[in-house]
Amino acid sequence: MDLDKPQNKTFIVAHGVSATPTLFVLDPHDQRATATQLGGLTTAEFAAFLERGERGVSSRAKAPADAKLARGDELLARNQPGAAAAAYGEALRVADNRWPERDRAIGAYVGALMSSRQIQPCAETAAIEAPNMRRGTAFGRVVLSGLTCANDADSAAWAAATRRTLEPLAVEAIGVQTILRDHRFQLYQQLMIAAQGRKDETGVKRWGDQWLCEIDASKPGNDNERSGLDIARVDVASLLGDPSRVLPALQASERVMPTNYNASLRLAQMQNQAKRYGDAIAACDRGLAHVTGPLGRTWLLQTKAEALIQLGQTLNARRTLESALKAAQAIGVKSAHDNNVARVSSAIASLEKRER
Predict the structure, then answer these.
(1) Upper half-sphere CA count for residue 53 (Cβ side, 13 Å)
(2) pTM
(3) Residues 6+ apart with CB under 8 A from 94
(4) What are the extents of the domains in the chain?
(5) pLDDT digits (tens, 9 = 90+) for 196-236
(6) Which of 95, 133, 299, 329 has the most crowded CB, counting CB atoms within 10 A?
(7) Extended beta strands in 6-98, E state
(8) Confidence class of residue 59 from pLDDT cuts 50, 70 and 90?
(9) What is the rounded CA–CA span in Å between residue 25 and residue 82?
(10) Which residue from 310, 313, 291, 305 is spatially nearest to 344, judged by alpha carbons?
């Protein structure tokens, strides 16, 4: 389901969807979520997810830990990650170490802590639990969430302490073959951010080069996969500060997907960073001709305004930002609505300050 298409807004708002991928199994009788998952799944995990959802529809969980785990999934589907984290934590408290769902519950718990911005418990729980977990997909998910939370706090003493545990585990997780590719890419990203934080330029380049090499070796099976790889290219090039390395691949993607606004957007973002402002504006205009909803329109207009400002066309930039603000106000996902309205409003205020 495309979060940016207006016809999907009712469902997205009702279920509190804030990011993709978010997966639900819904009871058809009352729309209760019997299983919820934030983030991607491997094929094996997806099969287990569907089975869990089916059990939840046919009968309520009876064991205390299973019941609390199911309650956490239900709360997460209602966009109550703080309450979901409490339910997942309680499930872990009442379960024994042989509980089959333990690793999944740890992943859900740490993920809900991250989603509810409880970043210190998120990182500290991951640092305590991950070393003793089986080296599989749940392990990678826990390490990723924990390191993300630690990096969010940057210079806090507790964050530095948890990074000392989690960074070597992240390196280990990258080598686990069963880990979802998206999670491995995000682990590279968090390792680069951690290296940046301590001004380790060699580390940033090492992880960036390895990540970009893996991206380039990945052959997309369809347009969605190609878009996902392009998003990763933009992320790694931005952290490396070297947009020129990915421009040829992004140009090739736009040729292959001429009506996909995302391809034009990613290209424009990197052209801006490469100071090719005229090319960036042209790419934005191509994307705007095919954009499907207000979120994509907001991104394209703001990217175009950034190029116009650099070219000294402040009047056009102001008009473009005003259009971007109007688009942002129509975004259906609350977190994306609030973040984009704030970002565009800040850009307008900065431009007004420059004009005075």
Answers:
(1) 19
(2) 0.86
(3) 64, 65, 68
(4) 1-117, 291-356
(5) 999 999 999 999 999 999 999 999 999 999 999 999 999 99
(6) 299
(7) 22-26, 33-38
(8) low
(9) 21
(10) 305
Q: Cα separations (Å) of 250 from 12, 138, 221, 292?
A: 30, 32, 16, 20
Locate 251 and state its tokens.
């140009």
Residue 291 tokens, joined = 């954009």
Q: What DSSP element (H or E) covers 66?
A: helix 64-77
Q: Which amino acid is at 305?
A: A
- Amino acid type, 102: R
Q: What is the pLDDT of residues 96-130, one digit of tens each?
A: 888 999 999 999 999 999 999 999 999 999 999 99
What burial letters (b/e) apply to 7-31, b meaning 16+ CB within 10 Å?
A: ebbeebeebbbbeeebbbbbeeeee
The pairing of beta strand 33-38 with beta strand 22-26: antiparallel
Q: How far is CA 139 from CA 21, 25, 26, 30, 175, in A?
A: 19, 23, 27, 34, 12
Residues in the chain: 356
Hunting for tokens 């999944």 — which residue is that?
Answer: 104
